[in-house]
Each structure stands twice: as structure tokens, then as C-alpha cells.
Amino acid sequence: MPAPSTGPRPPGARSVLLAAAALLAAACLVLPTGPAGALLYALVACAMPVGAVLGLRRHRPRPRGGWVVLGSGLGLWAAGACVQVLPWFAPTPVGRWWLWDLPFLLGYPLVGAGVWWVARRTRPRPGVGGVIDVAVITSGVSVLTWAFVVEPDLDRFGQDPAGAVAVLAYPVLDLALLALAVGAGAVSPRAAVPLRLMTLGLLASLTADLTWRLTGPGPGGQVVVVAFLVSFLTWTAAVTHPAAARLRREGPAGSVQLTRLRLLALGAAGLLAPGTAALQLALGREVDPWTVVVGCGVLFTLVLARAAVLLEAVGAQAERLRWLSVTDELTGLPNRRSGREQLADRCAPGAAGRPVTIALLDLDHFKRFNDTRGHPAGDTLLRECADAWRARLPPGGHLARWGGEEFLLLCAAPVEEVDHLLSGWRRATPQGQTFSAGTAGWDGREPVEALVARADAALYEAKSAGRACTRHAPAPRGARRAAAG
């Protein structure tokens, strides 16, 4: 039997496709404008549907339907790019915009449906914070789009309605897909790589559309070509990425984190409204004050809403931390710290005159129970005991987990009543278990530490007496002398 090969593994089909597309894109940029560059441009665009087919066959993502629809939309985009370069090779009817615009425009709904189909396998909803983030980013980009694309072409609707709709549809559809992709990208970093690559591709295509509208085919032509090539490459990388097969629901709604990258994106989007006015001045164009005013107002409102959501999340987190600081996570009872605080309040100097009795409870042979049945069974016993005893607490009683299998009971009652209460608790203790207890009554002057020490000594006496019983701590010496005198 031949030994397994230890040499380098041959590159996979995905690596070959991406490398070939990148080389073709580089060659397209190096070659002078002409048929050869146009052909390479079309070949790079065709890498998108080829990559979609390759990703489906190699990674078999589930569900397949979303990637099939997405690949179909990318195929229409590739067809539009191929038709777009046809004038270099054959005469085409002048003014027939639909020859290349129609495949592009028809591809948008398919790509959007595919992105939504794939994204719904991540999280059910991005949460209120995620929705506001998407609104901030898309609103900022919309101000720039309106000022430089939509508003300058409004007067064309009366002269060439079809052409005007086609020209304006690109940035509007880019923004819609961008909002969808940004919202879908709020997932775990590993599984979100394809969605973030899609977002980068949409940003590149939006940059190309805006650059074309700002500069025309002259000085901005090379920028447009570069942006579209970047878009083609990132979409190809997205649909062939191995993580495409691992997109699953990752967590509940509202778990979007405000990372540094997200905060940077929100800050940049918030500056787009005043930045639009600055760009208009730099280009010598007339500033549209209402666009800037409305854009700044919308963005300011969204930022306030995001701050409110963030403050609410911080408040909920603070409340959760406060709960954890005073609660035993296993049983849900107050923890030792909370028990000490309750005991200190009940035994405060001004509380003298009211009866206060404490009892320390210890489950008998708990270590043996854990060793024979396992720690999960021991945890279950602790939870069941806590539930059973808590349900039988008298008014004003306080039960806390003191540590391990020990519990502290604090009652505003004399020792005799507490002893009767513990007798009922023994019958209610689940799984036939027993407990030992030591009780101590407060004399109105004794420090809390001394009171707990007397109850602990009584508990030790109960264990020494054979367990499953209660022992009472004698009164402190000072109280006995006062009673004797």
C-alpha cells in the first residue's frame, strides 16, 4: 500500500477561480481601453455565476434555494456586463439602454431575495439596535446619493422617463441591497464572512454608480472600472467561501454588539450629511440646504435612538450584574453576601426587642451523594431542596445558600417556632435526604459574627449526634449572666 503523500496539497477549484479572476482583473486594468480589456472585464464578471455553481457543488449549503436564487441574480449581472462590452465587437442600436440595463435591473431582485434567504439562516432579527444601525448607514449614504444622483436627474423624467428611471434605479437598488446586507452581517465573525463580502461588493458597485454620475465616463472611467471589478471579485469570493455552508441561526434577536468597526461605520455615515455639503462646495456645485438639513435631522434622531437603545442595554446589563452579585446562580436563592446583609439589617442596633433566630442547615452525607450519583445529580438535589424550602418560608423569613450544601435560614420568630418549622422542612426535603441544623437566637446585643459562630457550633453538635436532627446553641455568656442577675 503506497504511503500517503506529504507534499503540498494542490490548490482547490475556489482558489484557482479567484486567482484567475484576480489576474484577469489586473490585466484588464493594465491593458489600454479597447476590445481586449472589455473582454477581460466580461470574463471577470462571469466568475460570479461560475463561483455560485462551484460553491453549490463543493460546499452544499443548506438551504440550497437561497444560493440558487442568488447565483441566478449574479448570472444576470454577468450577462449585463457581457452585453455592455458588445459595442467593442459588434454594432449595437444606439440609445437601446435596456440591452445592458435590463439584465442588471432584473438581477437586483434575485440577488436581494438570495441575500435575504441566506441571511435568515443566521439570526431571526438583528434587534432594535441593529435596525437603527442599518438605518443610520443607509440614511447617510442616501443623502449623498440624493444630492449627486437623484436630484440632478429629476428634470429628465419629463424628457426621457424610461432612461431616467434606469439611471436612478441603480443607486436606489444598491442602497436597498446595502441595507439588507449590513443588517444580515451582524452575526458571528466566522459565519458572517460571506455576508460581509457581499456588503463590500455592494459598496463597490454603489461607488461605481456614484462615480459615474459625478464624473461621467471621462476622468472617473478608470475608477468605475476598478470599483466594478472589485465588486465582481468580492461577490465571487462570497458565494464560494466555505463558511457559506455553515450559516445557521447564531443567537437571539437584540444581541448585536457595538464593536469598534461598527462604531466607525456609524460615525462615518453620520458625517455624510455635512460631508455632502462640503463635497458640493469643493466641486463648485450649488449646495442644497434642505437636503443637508433633512439629512442631518434624520441622522441626529437615529443617533439619539441608538443611544437610548445602548443605555437601555447598559441598564439591563447592570441589573443583571447586580442580580448575580446577590444571587446564587445554581439555586436562585440569595447568596452568602446577600444573607450577611439581611442578617446585619435584622440585627442592627435599632432592631433590639424583635425576636431573631437563625439556623444553619447542612445536607447530610452530600459528598457521598455526589460521589455515587454524580455532580449533576447533586446540583439537582440542591435546586430541589431550595425550591421545597423556599415554598415553605414563613412571612418575613429569609433563606440563603451559605456555601456548598449549607443554607442559612433567618426568621423573625423565637427558637421554638423555628424548630417546629425545620421539622416540617425535613418531611418536605426531596429524594429522601436529611439535613442537620444548628439554631441560635439573637439577644439584641450580640455581634452578627458571634451569632453565626454559635449557630455553626450547634450545627457541628447536630452532626456529632448522628445527623438528621437540630441542636440549639446556648445563649451567649453575657446574656446568661444578665438573666442570672
Question: How would you explain this protein's 3D organization?
Answer:
This protein has 485 residues and is mainly α. Among the domains are: 13-123 and 185-245; 336-472, Alpha-Beta Plaits (2-Layer Sandwich), CATH 3.30.70.270. Helix content is 64%, strand content 6%. It contains 17 helices and five strands. A five-stranded mixed beta sheet has the order 2-3-1-4-5, sandwiched between helices. Strand 4, helix 16 (448-464) and strand 5 (470-472) form a beta-alpha-beta unit. The longest helix is centred in the middle third of the chain and has 38 residues, at 289-326. It is elongated. The chain starts with 12 loop residues before the first helix and ends with a helix.
Q: How is the secondary structure organized here?
A:
Elements: H1 13-30, H2 35-59, H3 64-84, H4 98-119, H5 127-150, H6 161-184, H7 193-215, H8 221-240, H9 260-270, H10 272-282, H11 289-326, H12 336-346, E1 357-363, H13 366-373, H14 375-390, E2 398-403, E3 406-411, H15 415-428, E4 435-441, H16 448-464, E5 470-472, H17 477-484
Parallel strand pairs: 4-5
Antiparallel strand pairs: 1-3, 1-4, 2-3
Helix pairs in contact: 1-2, 1-8, 2-3, 2-8, 3-4, 4-6, 5-6, 5-9, 5-10, 5-11, 6-7, 7-8, 10-11, 13-14
Could you name the key traits of this structure?
485 residues; mainly alpha; Alpha-Beta Plaits; 5-stranded mixed β-sheet; 17 helices; disordered N terminus; disordered C terminus; transmembrane
Quick summary of this structure?
With 485 residues, this protein is mainly alpha-helical. The protein has helices at residues 13-30, 35-59, 64-84, 98-119, 127-150, 161-184, 193-215, 221-240, 260-270, 272-282, 289-326, 336-346, 366-373, 375-390, 415-428, 448-464, 477-484; strands at residues 357-363, 398-403, 406-411, 435-441, 470-472. Helix 16 links the parallel strand 4 and strand 5 (470-472).
